[in-house]
Recover the amino acids of this structure.
């Protein structure tokens, strides 16, 4: 990968095919940017209609260029692009950046033209960015290549940026410049006909010039491959992604823009969580996170110390931090004693530390240095509301000095518009994250805390259990031979049992004379269910009767079931099942996403899944670490781990059952959907049982 993309990002000679002498054209601006950025290699303008451009000799064809050329930037009408690419291949050029649009994003005709272009690229063993893109750049001093049509010159930094949208790429680059955030490499990948984000991640994963990777994506070409690559990359450097197309309407807009349907958003969230990618909800948030991570300031924990000169913002900050799952702990007794002796008498010396409105640089220095030394604090959050009598620039220089000489990350909230803060640009120069409101900073700290947990978490293992694969095979094959798309009731439970997933005791009864024996074999209380494969939602049609405690109740329920469901041409059969008392209802599930494949689900059952939708997803297959995260990430986890006086459920049984279910999904790809609802989670191992299940076959 390194060698194949070097001609694009580290060329020694570049041809601009479609270079123009007319200002405000893409052909003019790309050539202008290459010159303005002082590219360290040779530049060859190409245009069959002109002889000179930018005071440089202009060649009528790449074949006329006497030197070797590594990279060609193609800016010609779409119908000429395949032919130009053919000439580049014959010339021996190995890298193409096709800025020209009008390909698969425009419909069938454009898609066919794109297919021909890719054929040429493959024929000559070239690599191509685009078509329909904004260009590429490598701002590293030894290259200094800006092959985009950006209006402003970017600054150099250690961030690699991938954008699927050309227009957004330009806006983002200009926004980054306003924040003094620099890039090392940039690529607008457009239609991703050849080079995709996956290729760039592989290219950048070991490049010291790229310390953080930012992505704006509208769809995934190969999401499973993305997962594999991202797992490797995020252990070495942060990846922050804005993924568009979250809503149905957004997904349709993506399709018209790039020609590829967007993926189910729940699958995107699951993918990012499993491979450590930080998801940002907006471009602004993406840069908030990037600045916070730029100096590799990843807190070692989730304990935040707040220094403020106003009570209101400190309350907002405390609420936001706690709501995002972070902690605002008390300072040590020693720290409080020191602050009481060295701050004004009316200052608050616990956490938050309020130096009050008249507190100047010395007060901020005292409070920040104390928190830097306090073992109860992992990150220092400085809030400043600019009063008239305080020198803002002096406060800023104090923050920078303490940060540089301290050992903990610092985040800053300056209340008020940035353009009214004297010295604000100094914080940006030092790559210190600055926010206008405390809530923004709190969210950033929460996201970074999750990333810290990701890089320190164990890798996890894929576990395989001994199972009775034959039983499951026979049941699924029988259903397929009978053209049944669903498997429910006893058959579904037997599939689970064959894979070692514990199942509530049950028996089948078709005659009233057999009821007494069945009841004695199971014991009270009981649940009675109609056993009809075509009835998927039994409760809605009266096919489930619960809490049967006497034989008379069982007999009466049997009569009612027989009256409601018995037909002359069908066999009548019910299932008697032990009713599990106590415990927490949970739900296991799986659905198949067209791009990501099977998505495994866990959540709280009953009303929690139907109304509150308290569930978590992971892309299949899952590791033991993945299932722990699945279980712990649901909002109702305290109900499982022991809430107030309740005993914790046997979490190990839940986690093992999820792993066994993952193995079942791997073994039978014809299963496209399944539900185990409910799976009773109990503090008693013998009562941790699957009660009902349903499988949908391809």
């Amino acid at each position: 990968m390194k060698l194949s993309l070097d001609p694009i990002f580290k060329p020694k000679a570049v041809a601009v095919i479609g270079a123009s002498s007319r200002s405000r054209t893409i052909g003019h601006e790309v050539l202008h940017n290459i010159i303005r950025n002082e590219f360290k290699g040779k530049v060859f303008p190409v245009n069959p209609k002109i002889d000179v451009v930018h005071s440089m000799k202009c060649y009528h064809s790449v074949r006329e260029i006497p030197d070797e050329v590594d990279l060609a930037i193609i800016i010609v009408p779409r119908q000429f692009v395949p032919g130009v690419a053919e000439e580049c291949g014959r010339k021996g050029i190995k890298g193409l950046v096709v800025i020209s649009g009008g390909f698969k994003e425009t419909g069938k005709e454009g898609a066919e033209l794109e297919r021909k272009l890719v054929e040429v690229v493959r024929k000559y063993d070239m690599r191509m960015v685009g078509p329909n893109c904004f260009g590429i750049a490598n701002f590293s001093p030894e290259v200094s290549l800006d092959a985009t049509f950006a209006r402003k010159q970017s600054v150099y930094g250690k961030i690699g940026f991938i954008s699927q949208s050309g227009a957004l790429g330009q806006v983002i680059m200009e926004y980054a410049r306003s924040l003094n955030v620099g890039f090392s490499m940039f690529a607008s990948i457009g239609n991703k006909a050849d080079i995709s984000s996956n290729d760039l991640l592989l290219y950048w994963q070991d490049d010291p010039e790229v310390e953080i990777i930012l992505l704006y994506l509208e769809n995934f070409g190969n999401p499973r491959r993305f997962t594999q690559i991202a797992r490797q990359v995020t252990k070495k450097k942060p990846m922050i992604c804005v993924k568009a197309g979250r809503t149905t309407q957004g997904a349709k807009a993506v399709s018209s823009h790039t020609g590829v349907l967007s993926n189910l958003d729940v699958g995107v969230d699951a993918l990012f969580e499993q491979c450590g990618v930080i998801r940002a909800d907006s471009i602004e948030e993406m840069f908030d996170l990037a600045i916070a991570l730029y100096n590799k300031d990843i807190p070692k924990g989730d304990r935040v110390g707040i220094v403020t000169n106003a009570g209101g913002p400190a309350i907002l900050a405390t609420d936001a931090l706690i709501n995002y799952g972070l902690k605002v702990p008390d300072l040590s007794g020693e720290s409080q004693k020191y602050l009481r002796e060295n701050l004004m008498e009316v200052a608050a010396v616990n956490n938050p530390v309020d130096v009050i409105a008249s507190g100047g640089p010395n007060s901020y220095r005292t409070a920040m240095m104390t928190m830097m030394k306090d073992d109860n604090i992992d990150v220092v959050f400085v809030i400043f509301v600019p009063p008239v009598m305080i020198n803002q620039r002096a406060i800023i220089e104090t923050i920078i000095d303490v940060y540089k000489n301290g050992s903990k990350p610092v985040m800053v909230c300056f209340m008020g518009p940035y353009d009214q803060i004297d010295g604000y640009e100094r914080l940006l120069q030092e790559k210190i994250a600055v926010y206008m409101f405390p809530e923004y900073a709190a969210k950033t700290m929460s996201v970074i805390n999750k990333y810290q947990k990701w890089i320190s978490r164990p890798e996890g293992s894929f576990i395989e259990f001994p199972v009775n694969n034959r039983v499951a095979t026979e049941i699924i094959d029988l259903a397929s031979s009978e053209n049944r798309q669903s498997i429910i009731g006893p058959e579904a439970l037997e599939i689970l049992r064959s894979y070692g997933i514990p199942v509530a005791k049950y028996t089948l009864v078709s005659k009233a004379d057999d009821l007494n024996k069945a009841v004695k074999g199971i014991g009270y209380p009981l649940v009675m269910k109609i056993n009809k494969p075509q009835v998927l939602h039994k409760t809605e049609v009266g096919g489930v009767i619960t809490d049967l405690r006497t034989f008379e109740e069982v007999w009466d329920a049997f009569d009612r079931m027989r009256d409601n469901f018995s037909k002359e041409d069908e066999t009548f059969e019910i299932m008697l099942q032990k009713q599990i008392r106590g415990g927490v209802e949970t739900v296991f599930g799986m659905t198949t996403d067209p791009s990501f494949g099977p998505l495994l689900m866990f959540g709280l059952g009953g009303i929690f899944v139907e109304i509150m939708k308290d569930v978590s997803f992971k892309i299949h297959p899952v590791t033991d670490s993945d299932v722990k995260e699945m279980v712990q990430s649901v909002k109702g986890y305290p109900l499982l781990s022991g809430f107030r006086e309740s005993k914790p459920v046997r979490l190990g049984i839940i986690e093992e059952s999820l792993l066994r279910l993952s193995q079942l999904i791997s073994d039978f790809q014809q299963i496209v959907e399944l539900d185990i609802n409910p799976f009773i989670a109990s503090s008693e191992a013998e009562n941790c049982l699957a009660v009902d299940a349903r499988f949908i076959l391809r």
